[in-house]
Amino acid sequence: MLRITEYIKKTLDGKEIRPFNGKILIWNLTNACNLFCQHCYSAANTSRNGEISIDEIKKQIPYLKEAGVKVLILSGGEPLIREDIFDIAQLFNENGFVTTLSTNGLLINEKNIDQIKKQFSYVGISIDGDEETHDRFRGMKGAFRRSMESIRLVRDSGIKVGIRFTLSSMTEKALPFIFSLAEKENIPKVYISHLVYSGRGKHLSQAEKERYRKHVEFIIDKSFEYVKKGISIDVVTGNNEADAVVLYHKFKEKYPEKAELLYQNLKRWGGNQAGVRIFDIDYRGYVKPDTYFPYKIGNIYEKNFYDIVNSNGLMTKLRQHPRPVKGRCASCRYLEICNGNSRSRAYAVYGDIFAEDPDCYISEEGEGNEKSTTSTAYTG
Question: Which of 1, 55, 102, 372 has its CA 20 to 30 A from that of 192?
Fold first, then answer.
């Protein structure tokens, strides 16, 4: 994840930014869901078969700590379908983890909002555009209205809430709406996930690269605007670390005297963190380097989490920096920043974990032209 507004602010303040000293674990507690979203990486359905029990989860607590996990993102499917979701969250909280929730918001209501406030430090709720776009993308009429009611309830209850938006060819026109919505509704965070071809997301596509690049420029321009105007909205992107290259060039145009500090901050950040600082466990106990990854590297029923993530040859290669990637990624001058981008997307398109990322929109010459990031009119 690239915390764009944070990197702009802290670099302008002359601060060296150190990467998060710990690991983030996304735990998909169920594959059941009350929606049928077109981009769903887990291809969620209505089945509850195979869900890991809270007793099995409890057994892994010491090994999560030993592995350096500090943040838990409870996800699904739809995690609030689990009747014991608050017991699971409490278990993690009692053991010192920062526990957050990723949800479609449809099951948040007045009856459970106090428990949500008690157990979760942050709630991310998916919104994929205006009402028509969101309902079509999510496969349910009225989904947008209900999710927005939940966002307002969470916000008004004093819980930090954010919008989660997936950028794809189906949602790209709604990107300006998402920022306008955050501004209008006083939503303090916008997280934009680039599409990864996993689960039902295999059947979607990303925007054509020149247009895709303009979307990223728009995101980063909005981030500069928020910082300049003192608007307290955090902008974060994930799953396409080439965003950092665009950020660097735009920052250099505006603040050339501090551009080297930003570059070093981005270099320390290190780009794609799958298998480095980010991991995933699915509802059956399988461990992966991230939620989209095509390979399972072990199962916690057979081996504990610490041993799984520290005794695998693939993990060793993922932790090389820069990674041993191929194609034009191998010779890119910004490999030390992006770290080769999404290995899951490379595999989905080329069948090779270490192929170039097919959705990198950086020019072949590695952004050699300093003027290449200057914005033209953005029409969404």
Answer: 372
